[in-house]
Amino acid sequence: MNIYDVSEKAGVSIATVSRVINGSANVSSKTREKVLAVMEELGYTPNVFARGLGLNTMNTIGIMCADSSDPFLANAVYYLEQNLRKNGYDSFLCCTGYELSTKQNYLKLLLSKRVDAIILVGSNFLEAAKKDNQYMIDAANEVPVMLINGYLAHPNIYCTLCDDYQAVYDGTIRLIEAGYRRPLFLYCSRSYSALQKLSGFRDALSASGLPAPEESVCLCANDIAQTKELLCSLKGRGLVFDAVFGAEDSLAVGAVKYAREQGLRIPEEFAVVGYNNSMLAVCSEPELTSIDNHVETLSITTVSTLMRVLGGNDVPNKTTISNELVVRGTARL
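Now predict its structure.
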């Protein structure tokens, strides 16, 4: 028996149950009586997790990311910890890798530390099979779960994300309008975010009346050298392309190296667009045109939302942040 069962039975939000548990004045007498009656009927005794929804009991937040060497994830963790500290919270960080069983075990570990909430950084925590997301749903029945750059609809799960679909759609349209008629899309995972980007690319080709054969998209390793070799191999097999849109900046940098090796003039003959606007974008030569998905804003918004949740406020399940195409030397847009 948990706070979610009380919420469902009483027909109110988890935040409302939390306010009743913690004696908040921001609950009507009628609602308070209904919630208390349901708690008594179900034999529910509030535990430390339930109280933590309304009171900053442990003042500690669990953060999970798959890979701290990834520039996007590393920056997100930095901004999260910085802003949690400003709000009086410490944090536990777990770098989980990508295996489902490892992610599940780390989530159990954080809950055993009696954290007040869990922040999952990156859409790699979303599994393709719905049943494999149950571990997040179970955690959300105990503490607020914040998901950055992914979306899962469930009570007490709060998602902050950029519109990856629209960003890639708009960027691809601009490439096509600039005269690059055979763009190639590279991506390195089947995460929620990557698949949104892939859909944006394919729909942009379709909207522009261009063919979208399977050869126009390629799943590859997130590695600069391997990306360059892959593109050389594709050219050797007869694939014609005059632009590369990388779902990550590292893939785009690999495309720049490919163009250099092939003697292609950038951006006159060959265009490259990346994603994340990371440090790699300005280290590239020429500097990389890239989508800025505003990782700092994503992180700050996530912490702000969490503080409102812990304060017993009702907040939306999904917050979308705008992105920006930063045009530099690798694309004539």
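The mean pLDDT is 91.
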